[in-house]
Amino acid sequence: MSGGFRAVFASFILALMAIIVTPAQARGLQCAPFARQVSGIDIHGNANTWWGQADGRYARGHEPRVGAVLAFSSSRSMPVGHVAMVSKVVGDREVLLTHANWSYRGGIERDVRAIDVSPNNDWTDVRVWYGPIGALGLRSNPAKGFIYAEAPKSLSQPVQVASADTAGGA
Hints:
This protein is an alpha+beta fold. Helix content is 19%, strand content 28%. A hairpin with an 8-residue loop joins strand 5 (108-116) and strand 6 (125-130).
């Protein structure tokens, strides 16, 4: 073997070893850690668990708001669901999303179009921009709704009542 060939061969072997020993998670950015980072919603785990984990910790609903996370359900094409942050509300049935790992493995997309195609106008069925075709995706995607960054309003929490101190002088 010539010295040049050995160097090229050694580089190839090192690159191949890096691919083999690199875990799948490290190959690209996933939607859940990215959504957590950009929204401030501190939920961990697969995207399909976010809706349930948010119950009692974060307000949830079916109205799009800037900064909210749209939680997609598991489906045949998305077994672990998907989460994306709303970057702009265009209208009742259209938003712009910022998310990761949708059109391109590990890629980040900012301000991509998503529309509500649900029959009840409740964001439970959504079509999202898909980069490889340069348009909204051909299929709709089931969704649970929006997780809002603020804590839920709860009537079960104690209410503190202010009172004037009458025992002491002013």
